[in-house]
Records
---
Amino acid sequence: MQRFLRPFVWRNLTIRTKSVLLSISLMMLTGLMMLASLWALDSIRRQVDNTVALTIEMRSLVQAIQLETESLQSLQSRLLDEYRQPDIDPLITSLPSNYADINDSLETHADQLIGLSARLPESSAQETLKAQVAAIKSKSDTARESFFNTVTLVQQLSDPETGTITQFTQSGEQLRTATAKLNDTALNNQVITMHTLETVVVQSNAAEDYAIFQQAVARYQALYESKIPEERRRDEAELLQTYRDNAATIVSQIEQIDNVGNITQNALSDLRDEASRLDNVVEDRVGSPLEIMATTLNRQRIILFVVMIIAVAGGWIIATLFGRDISQNVWELLDTAQRISTGNLQARAHIEGEDELSQLGESFNAMAAQLEGLITGLEQRVAERTRELSITGDIGRAVVTLRDPRDLMNEIVELIRHRFGFYHAQIFLVDNQRENAVLAASTGSAGRELMARKHALPVGSQSVIGQVTSRGEPVIASDTDSSAVHKRNELLPDTRSEMALPMRVGDEVIGALDLQSVAPNAFDQDDIAVFQIMADQLAMALENARLYGELQDAQGSVEMLERRITAEAWNSYRQSHDVDAPLAYEFGGERVEPYSRQSPTPMSQAVQDGQMVALDDGDDGISLAVPIKVRGEVIGAFGFGGETVRRLTGDDLALVEAVIDRVGLALENLRLMEQTSRRAEHEQIINAITAKIVGTTDVNQILQTTVKELGRVLRAPQTSVQLRRETLDDSYE
C-alpha cells in the first residue's frame, strides 16, 4: 500500500503536477470563466505551435537546399580547378562521392518539403510549392548528369595507369630514350625542349602553347629526317606520331572537360536561382497563417489578463503553502554549488523526492562527479607532461655528456624507447649527396638486423622517413593499415602507428627521429611538440660533435705542423752552428764544462720518448732525465744524478719541469733572434750591393762591381762572371 501511495506524496509530486493542482485551486475560485479561458488559451497555443513549427521546418529545409546547392557548385569548381594538377588521382578523389551524397541529401530535403506542403491551409499554396520543388529536382538531375560526365572525362584524361596524360608522358619518355641512342646532340636538345613543353601543354591548354609544342615536334621531325638516313630509321617516327597524337588528344579532352564543366556550372546556376525562388514562395505562402494566429493571440491575451488578475490573489495564498519546499531545495543546490566553487569537489546535493528539483539535484551531482573526474584526468595529463619534460631533460644531459655521435644516437633511441614504452625507435641521417636517409641508430634485435643490412630509404620516397627528410616537417601515420606514407618492414610486423620528426640544423635537414607504436592513433600534436624538441637537441648535438671532431683534427694538424717546422728549424740551426762549439754541458759540482762524450742512456731515452725518465742507476750516474721541449718537439734533455735526486718529491719534479720549459722557451727565442739577425744582415748586404750597381749605366762596370762584392762577402779566393755570346754560326757559347 505504501508503494502504491508513494507517488502521491506531496514531495514526490513533480513541479508540473503541483502547478496543475495550483491551477485547479485557482479555477475553483474563478469558476467556469477560468476554465473557458484556459481551454481557449490551450487551443490557440496548439495552433500557434503547429504553425510556427511548420514555418521553421519548411524554412530550415529551404535553407538546407540552398546550402547544398552552393556545396554542389563548390564541388564543381574544385573539380575544374584541380583536375590539371599533376598529383590528382581521379580514381581515389572524394569529389564524386561527396557530390552524390549532397545531391541525394538535396533530393531528400525536396521530398520532405513536398510532404510538409500538404499541411498548408491553402491548396493553391500546395500546388505552387510542389511545382517549384519539381523544378529544383529537374535542375538537380541535369547538373548531376553533367557533373559525372565531367568526372568520366577527367578519369580518361588523368588516370595514373591508362589516362591520356600517362600515355603522353610514357610516349615522350620512349621517344627520349630512342633519341638518346642516336647520339645526336641536336636531336637530344630538341627532344629536351619538347619535354619541357609537355607540362605547358597539359597545364595551360592554350592554343599558342600547343602551337609552340607542335612547332617543336616539327623541328624534331625535320632534324630527324635530315640527320638520320632512311635505312637507319627505326621506330622514332612512329613514336613521334604517337607522341603528337597523345598531345592532340589531351588538348581535345581538356576542351571537352571545359565545355561540359561550363554546362554543369550553368545548370547549377539555374538550380541556385530556383532555390532562391523557392525561398520566396515559402516566405509568401507561410506568412499569412502567422498573421491570423497573431491577431487571435492578441485578443485572447486581453481576456487572460483579466482572468489572471482575479487568480493572482488566491494563487498567492496557495503558492505560499508549497513555496517553502521548493526554496529549501533551491538553497540546498546553491549551497552545494558554493562549496564546489571553493574547491570541495566531493560536495553533493541531498534533495529528497522525485520532482524536477530532485532530478536537477541528481543531474547536478552527476555534473560534479564528472567535473571531479575531469580535473583528476587533467592532473594526470599534467603529470604525464611533467614526466615527458623530465625525460627531455635526461636526453639533454645525455646530449651534453656524450661526444661520440654513434654512442649519443644509440643512447638517445634506447632512452626514448625505454622511458616512453614505444615499440621501436630509430634515427636516420641524410647522406652527403642528400639522396638517401641512412639508418644510423636503432633499437632491439630488429634494429641490429637493419643496421647490419645498412638499411636506407630514398629522400622524398613514399615513406614516412622519405617525406620527413624531403619536406622538413613532422609526419604521422596514425594507422599503418590505411596510411599511404607508411612503408611496412617485415622485421617490425607489429607497428600500427608511426611518427617521424625532422632533425634540423638551421634550415638544413640532416636526418629524422622515427618512433613506432603497436597501438593505432598513438601520436598527436602534443607529442610532436615534445619530441620535436628532442629531435632538435639531437641534431644540434650531432652538429656540435661533427664540428668538435673537425676542430680536433685541425688542432692536431696544426700541432704536427708546428712540431715539424720546429724540428726542421732546429736541425738547420744545429747544421749551421759552429761544429767546434759544444752543444752539451755538464756541471760537476764546481764548474760547468763542455760535454763531448756520448749521451747517457736515460737522456737519449728522454729525447727519443719525449717523457721524463727516472732510474735507480743510470749511465754516468744519471738517474733522472727530463726532455727539453719547444712546441711539443724535443730539442734536448737535462740529466741529473746523485743521491738527492732519488729523494725528489712530486713538487720538486714539477719545479724542475717548469724551469726546463722556460729554458726551452729561452733557447727558441735565442734561435729566432739569431735567425732574424742573419736575415737582417743578408738584407743589408743585398741593399749595399744593389746601391752600388743601381747608378751605373755600364754593363762591364756592373759585372765588375758585383763580382768584387760577392767575392768579398763570400770570402771566395776566386769569383768570376760571364755573359753568353752569340757566334757567327748562330750558336751560343
Note: Residues 86 and 158 are 9 Å apart (CA to CA).
---
Amino acid sequence: MKISGKIISMVLAVVMVFSLTVPAFAADRIENEQTPIIYIRGNGEPLYNAQGERIAAEIEDISLGGDDEDEEDGDSTLKTVIETSANILIPFVKEGLLQDKWDNYGKVVYEELSPLFEEAILDGNGDPKNGTGVHPNVLANAEAQSHIDHGADGIYGVYDYSFAFDWRLDPYEHVDTLHQHILNILEATGEEQVSLVSRCLGGAIINAYLDRYGSERLVKNAVYTETMSNGADLISKGFSAQLEFDSKAVQRYLGQMMHCGDTGFGVKISVPALAKEIIGTTLDMLTQTGMTGIALKGVEGLYDRLYKALVPALFHSLGQGSQPIYWTCVKEEDFDLALDIMFGEEGSEGRAYYAGLIEKILYYRERITSRLPELYKTFTEEYGVHIATVAKYGYINDPITEGRLDLSDGLVSLKDATFGATTARAGKTLSEEYINKRIAEGKGKYISSDKEVDTSTAFFPDTTWVIKNVHHNRFATEMNIATEICRGTNVTVETSRYPRFIMFDEFAKTWSPMTEDNCADLGFMSSVTEDPTLKTKLVSIISFVKVVFNFLLGLLKGEIKIG
C-alpha cells in the first residue's frame, strides 16, 4: 500500500509532539524518577524460639460467643486464664484491699503473667533470650531479595525489597544491616538512591538510619505511614504511669472494641448482636446515671496506691518494658518519669539489672527523641530527603490517658502521626473562629471537610495525607500513596492523584475523596460526647429497661436460648 509523504510527515509530527509529553514523561519517570522501595514494617513480623516454633508476643482479641475456636485449646486457655486470674486476685484482696499492703503485689503480677510471654521478653541488656527472634529463613530471604533487580521493567513495587528485622531490639542495632541491604539493592539495580517506606514502629528505624547514614544521600524519599516515631500516648503515659480514668471514655472505647469485632481489625471484642445491644445500653445507663464514674473513682483511688508496683510489672511481664523499640514511643516530657517508674530510681536493683537496656534507650533519646523536629529539618535540608506522612483517624487511643479524646487510628494520635497537625477532640469539630482564621490566612485547603483536622500546622503540610475511619491495624490506601510518592520526584498533595483527605469504607474496602456529604464519624465516636442531662439520663434508663424486658420476654417465649 502506497503512503504519501505528507501523511508520513504528519504521523512523524504527531509522534514527536506526543514523545515530548506522555512518553517522555513516562521514560523520565522510569529512568530518572523511579527508586527501589524498601518497606520497613513495625512489630508485625512473627517471632520464633530456637526450636523454630512461633511464640506469643501480644494479646489483641477477646471473643465472647465465638463458634470458630478449637474446643480443646479453648478449654486449656480458659483453665490457664482462671488459674492465673485467681493467683493474681487472691493476694489483691487478701493483702491489698484487706491489709493495704501493695509492696509485693507487682512481683506477684509479674510472676503470674511473665511465663505466658517469657520468650518475647528481652534480658537486662535489651537482647533476645534463648535464641528467640525473627525466623532465620525470613532474614535470609530478605537478604537474597536485595541482590535481585526487581525493577528490570522500570517499575519498583513497595514490597520488592522488604527489610526484615527483630522489631523488639534497639533501632540502631539494625542500621548497619539496613545500610548493607541498601548497598546490595543499588548494586543489583544500578540505581543511585532508594526510598524508605515505614509503618508503625518502623519509623524509628528510618530515624536511626538517617541519623547515622543520611549524609551519604542514598535515600531519596522517606514515607512514614501511621508512624509512632513521634510518640504514642499509650506507651509514653503508660510507662510513666500517668493514667487517668473517665467513664465516658471507657464507654466509647468499649463501643469501639465492639465495632472492631465487626470489622476484624484492632483491639476487638466479638459478641452476638443481642449481647452487643445489652452491653451498649447497660454501659450508657451506667455512664449517664454516674454509676460508672463512681466505680472508676474507686479504681482511681486503688491505682494511686499500687501504680508504682503494678505498672512496671504489667509492662515488663508483657515484654514491652524490656523492648527498646517501644521506648522510642516515649515522648521527651515523659522520659525521666518513665525511667523511674519502669526501672526504679537511680541506684536501685532495677537500674542495675537493666543498665545495658537503659544505655540503649538513652542513646536513642539523645540522638532522636530530644531533637525532634529539628532532626527532620536536617534530613530534608542537609540530606535532601523528601519526607511524606500518611496518617489515619476515626478512632480513639485508649480510655485511660490524657489523650483519650484525641483523634487517632486506635493506637497513635493523628497529631503525632502527622508530625503536628491540629485536631479536634473526639466527637467535636474545630471552632468556627479557628477555621475562619485559617481560611483568612489562605490555609482553608488544609481543613478537612468534617472540620476536625487542620494539617497546615504539620511539619510537612504539603506532603501529609490523612485517611478517615480506618484502624491502625488495617491497610487502606496508605501503601498506594507511598508507592506513588516513591515513583516520582518531590510528590506533594497538589501533584498527587490522592487527595489530602480521604474517606475509607471498612466494609466495602473502598476509598473516596472526603466531602461534606461523606465525612460522618463512626457511631461510637459521637456517643457520650456531652455531659449527662436529666433527659439523657431518663432516655438511657428507659432504653436499658426496654432491652432487659425484651430479653426476658424472649427467654419466656423460647425465642432466645442460652447455652
Note: The first helix runs from residue 5 to 19.
---
Amino acid sequence: MLRGDILGERSRLTPDRTALVYVPTKERISYGRLNERATACARAWIHHFGLRKGDRVAILANNRVEFIEAYFAAIKSGIVLVPLSTKLTASELAFILGDSGARMLIHASCAASAVRVLEQRMVLEHWVALDEPVVAQDQSYPRMRDAYLRQDLALPRVEPEDLCALLYTSGTTGHPKGVMIPQRMVSWNAYNTVVSWQLRDTDVSPVFMPLYHAGGLGVFVAPLFAIGGTIVLHDGFHAAEILRTVEKERCTVILGVPTVFWFLLRSDAFDTTDWSSVRWLISGGAPLPVKLVEAFRAKGLVLRQGYGLTEVGVNCFSMTNEEATLYAGAVGRPMMFTQARIETQRGEEAETDEVGELMLRGPHVSCGYWNHPEANAEVYDSEGWFRTGDLATRDRTGMVRIVGRRTDMYISGGVNVFPPEVEAEILRHDAVADVAVVGVPDAIWGETGVAFVLLRPGHRLDKQVLLQSLRQRLASYKIPKTIVFVASLPRTSYGKIRKRELREAYSNGQWEALNPTAAQEEETATAVA
C-alpha cells in the first residue's frame, strides 16, 4: 500500500538518525523522536478533539518543528491539513477556512493579530495555540500533544487515495483553489525524487522556503525523510544565517527561488562561505535567468532549474550537473514514470523544438481542486493528463524548456511573443535586478509589451540604452514598446511576480499606485520598431 507516512517508515529503519535541525532553538531531533511527536498529535486530534478521517485542520504558522509534526500527523490519521500563508489578510484567511470547512485552526504567535480578527468573524470548533493563547478559546498545542506521547491508541486506516492536505494556490487568477493532495502523491513524489535526483542518506538541506507552500514540504522534506537525510529548518529567509548554515551543517542540496539566489549571491558573506559540501542547488517557482546560472557557475557552483506545480507534484523533471551547465535554462527530462506531452493548438504532439502546452500524467498528479468541478474539467482530461498552462519545447535530446505561461504569451502583429525570452535579455544588463514583461492591448499591433524594470540599488539606467542593447539581440517585434522603471514588483508569498496585477494596473492607468516613488520620476519610453 502506497501511503504517505514516510516519516513513520524511516523512523522504523533508522530511529536514532538526525531528521531535523531547528535553527532558532538549535534543537536536533531524531527520526524516532519526531515520529513520536507526530503520532501523538494525530492521536490527540482523534481521541481528544473527536476529529474524524477526512476532517480538515488548518495551520497558520511560520516554519517550525510543529508544522512538520502536524503534516505527518495528518498523513498518519487521515485528517486533511490545510496550510495557511502567514502573509494573507484576515479576509483571505477567512475565505480559505470557510471554503475548506476546517474544524480546527492551529496558529502561532506571529499571526496573532489575524487570529483575533478571525475569531470575531467566524465560528470554528477548535482553536489551538502553538505558543501563548491568543483568543479565549485557545487550547495549548504542546500540552495536547505531550499528553498523548505514550498512549498506544489506534488511528484510522488510511488508503493511497485518501487526502492528507489541501494546498491552496496563490490566487493570481481569482480566489485561491484548494489542490487535493492524496497519500499516494506524497509518497510517490518522495521516492521518485530520491531515485531520479539521486539523493543520498548523507544529504543535508536547509529549508527556508515557507512550509505552507507545496515546495516547502515537497522538494526536500519528504524526499530526504524517505532516504534518511537531514533537514535544517529555518523560520524564514535570512541570507547571512543561511550562509552560516551551509557551512556549519555541511549542506549538500539547496532549494530556492531566483530572488533568493540573487540575495545570497549579493550577500557580503557569499564569497567567504565554505561551499565545498554543496553538490548542487535547484531553483523553482519562477523562470531561472541564465545570467544567474552563469553567476553561480563562476563561483564553482551548479544551479539547476527545477519544475513542478502544486497540482502535479513539485518535482517533475531531472537533469545531471553536467546537463545543468550544457542546457542552462532547461528543466530537464521527465522523471521516472512521469509522462510529458507537449501539445500544439492543433491538438497534436509538438514536433522537435515546436512550442506547445505542457501536459503531465503519472502517479504524482493530484486528485483535482476542492469543490471546483468546472476547473477540474478544464485541466484534467479523461485519460489522466493535466494541462499545466505552461508553454514548452522539447529538443532532439529530450530536454524540455519552459518558454512561458499560456496566459502570459501575447501576440504582436500576428506573431507570438514569450515574455521569459525578453525578460532573460533584459536581465543581462548589470543594472537590472528583476523584470516582468506583460502584453497589453495596442490599436495597431493588437498587443505590445510593457517591461516593468526593477533596478539594483544605487544603479541608474537610461531607457534608450536598454532598448538599444535589446535591438542587438531580439527581433523588433519582441522588444517592449514601453519600459517602466519601478520601485518594487508585486509578488506572491512564494516569490512569483503577479503579472496579472501589473497588467491590470497598467491598462487601467493605475500602475503608479503600485510604485508611487518611481512613478514620480519615470516616464514611459517608446521603442522604435
Note: The CA atoms of residues 130 and 143 lie 10 Å apart.
---
Amino acid sequence: MATKVDVAPGAHPGQTISAGEEKFERIRKTVGFFLAPALFLLFYYMPIAGLSPAAHNLAAIFVFTVTLWITEAVPIPIAAILGPILTVIFGVTTAKEAFAAFADPTIMLFLGGFILAEAMAVQGLDRRFALGILSLSAVKGNAYRILFAFGAIITFLSMWLSNTATAAMMYPIGLGVLGAIANVKAEDAGKSKFGTGMMLMVAYTASIGGIGTPIGSPPNLIGLASMEKILKVKIPFVQWMEVTVPIMIIMFIFLYFYISRTSPPPAKDASGSNDYISEQKKAMGSWTRGQINALLAFLVAVALWVYPGILAIIEGTKGPNYVHFASTFPESVVALLAASLLFVLPTNWKKREFTITAKQALNIDWGTLLLFGGGIALGDLMFKTGLAKAVGNGLVSLTGADSLISITALAIFISVLLTETTSNTAAATMVVPIVIAIATQAQVSPIPPALGATLAASMAFMLPVSTPPNAIVYGSGLVPVTKMIKTGFWLDFFAYFIILIGVLTLPKLVGLM
C-alpha cells in the first residue's frame, strides 16, 4: 500500500541527509512553528466577504493545519488531530461530528489492510514472493529482465502493502542483486549508473503501485470518501482498478524504459546474481504455516473485494445479488474480517500461537490513520460550511479554469506540486474537496478532477524528502540528489499527462460518467 509515513523527514528509515539539508529542515520547521499560528490569527480576524461565521473560522483552521502539514513543525498526524479539535473549540461543529471521521468505514478499510500487510511482512510472505519471481528461469541471468521483474514485483506489492514497507523490504534485495551483478557498493555513489537506476526503480515503483487499488495509498481513500460523501458516488473496488491499473501499467512501462536507457546495466549478462538469489531463497526454507495462513487471509480479502465487481458485470449495479452482497460485505467489513482471520488461524495450536499477535498488529502505521481521519473531517466540513465552494469560486476567477479539461489539468498540477513538499494524504485532503467544488460550480463532472487530484497525490518523485521510499534509496549512497531530481521531474511530467488523459477517458469507458 503506497502510504507515506508522515513524520519528519529526518526520521525516515535509511535516509542520510547532508548538513545543508538538515539546516533547511530545521529552518522550515522553525518557520512553520511561528507561521502557522500567525496565519491562523490573520485569517481569523481578517474580514472575508461571503463566508458564514463557521466557514470563516474553518478557513483560519484550515490554513493553520495546512501550514503545519507543509512545514512539519509538528508531526503531521498531530496536526491532523489539531484540526478537528479546533473546529469544536471555535464552534464550527460538534465533537461528535468532528471525531466521527476517525471511525469512518474508510478508516476501518485501511486498518484491516494495514494488519494484513503487517502479517505478510511478519511471516515473510512478501519476501518469499519477490525472491520466487526473481528466481524464475525467464528472469534470472539477464540484467534487463531482472530490472523489469524487480520493478514489477514492487509495483504489485505496493498495490496491497505500504510503499515504505515495500521499499524497505526490496531495498536490501536490490543491493544484494547489484553486488552480485556489478559489485556495486555504497562508497561508489554516483559511479554506477545501473546502481542508481535500480535504487530509483525501488523508490518510484513503490509509489506508482499504490494507485492500483483503493487500499494502495491513503489519497485513494481520501478521494473515494470525498466523492461518496459529497457527490454520493460510490466507486467499487473493481471499477477503481479498471480506471487506475491501466494508468499504473503505462507509468511503470515508461519508468522501465527511461531507467534502462539512462541507467543501463554494465552488461546484459547477469548470471552472477543467480547464486545470490538462490541462496536467499534457500535460506527462507520451505513454506511455513504462518505464510500459508497470511496468504489465505489475503486471498479471502481480495476475493471478497473483487466479487461484487464480477456481479456488477453480470447483472449490473442494481441487480439483487450485487445489492445484497455489496451491503453485506462492504470493503471495510471485508478488510476487518480478513484481518480477524489472522488472529484465529494457528501456526502452533498446542502453544496457542496464531498468524499474528496483538503486539505485532499494533506496529501498524497509526499516524497515517490519524492523518486520514483528520483529513476526512476537514474535507467534509469544507463542504458543509460552504468554504470549499467559496475557495472554488475564487480559483475559477483567478485561473479562468471553467471547463472539464482545464479544471482537471489544474487539479493534477496543484496535487503534484503539493505532494513533492508535503504528505500525499495532506495533498489529497487539500485539493480534492476544492476541485469538486470548482467542477460543481462550473457545472461539469467532478469525477475526473477528483480522480486526477487523488492519483497525482502519489506522484512524489523529485526529492529525498518527498516520500519515504525516496528517502530510503537516497540513504543507500547510490542516488545523487541531482539524478533523483532530473529523473523525478521527467516522471512527474509524464505522470501529469498520462493521468490527465486517463481520468478524462477511462471513467467514461467503465460507466462512472
Note: Confidence is low (pLDDT under 50) at residues 1-16, 184-190.
